[in-house]
Amino acid sequence: MPIINRIAEFAADMTAWRRHLHAHPELGLECHETAKFVVDRLREFGVDEIHEGIATSGLVAIINGREDGRTIGLRADMDALPMDEHTGLDYASTIPGRMHACGHDGHTTMLLGAARYLAETRNFKGRVALIFQPAEEDQGGGEIMVNEGMMDRFSIAEVYALHCAPGMDIGAFETTPGPIMAAVDTLHIYIKGKGGHGAMPHETADPVVAAVGIANAIQTIVSRNHHANQDLVVSVTQIHTGSADNIIPDTAYINGTVRSFDTDVQQMVARRLQTIVDGHAAAYEVEATLEFELGYPATINDPDRAAFAADVAREIAVSVNDQRPRDMGAEDFSYMLRERPGAYLFVGNGNSAAWHHSEFNFDDTASPYGASFFARLIERALPIG
Prior knowledge:
385 residues, Aminopeptidase, 11 helices
């Protein structure tokens, strides 16, 4: 079965919606105009309930089926990124310093397309909870929606989401049972030494040397402290210190990211970082403080729901890979999957620029595939009779 005919009929409408959203990006929790646009469309479609103001600008809309039954959640993220766009498109961002460079405009559009079809046909029992979430890129809007009681408030039993994927063919889907995206944590190391003249280092406690030593030692965590079969990334991404060639500074700062899938590995990294920081502080006679900031947890698909979702995708997809390699990126849909079983899938975006690139653009020909997937998932999961 290809994409749903009715959804194909309003593909041009989805393109118009997506390009409007692309031209008007919003950041973080403050996706108010995006939410208003979504609400206006949902009212046109005739959904049964719209609940606004969740996680500041998020919303949940309900579509009732023809019979009583369970509620399944479908989620799309709405926020953009704080960067300038360099696509040259006639619908490029109208707001300097803001850009939809990760496809969230497309995710919102795909869910709107599914909403229009499901509100028209209602060929299912139970309810659909359409989740439009702000602040996926930062601030954890998914966690906030969960903490505000969304799952219990709307009796959501399962939850699913899609993300576009550059380099995958249009109409292709990928997912995997178990972990599909990593946990992300952030390390901050603050070093305080004693500055002085660059020609007289013996009179100082040099934080630059300490910072270099710590940064080098951090690399041994992956190479010497974890099992080679376990996925782990520890990257030092910033070192800030100094102001001139002849001044040894008083302080230095190190920043980095940690990506893992297993909590034991995560805890091992935190322990080793503390040992490295404390040891180098003693060795170089400086003060050093580690802040290990826990971020989004790993995104872990329920194996049965991932298999079911892949089976649904096969009805409309060009191809389906149900054993996608785990991705070291992170995603706050993880908080929803910690509360309810479900699955996270990727849908092809063709030969586009990479995520978070200034020339990225969502391919509008992917929208009917994503919308059809969401719609068929509901009809398969909540069959009438």
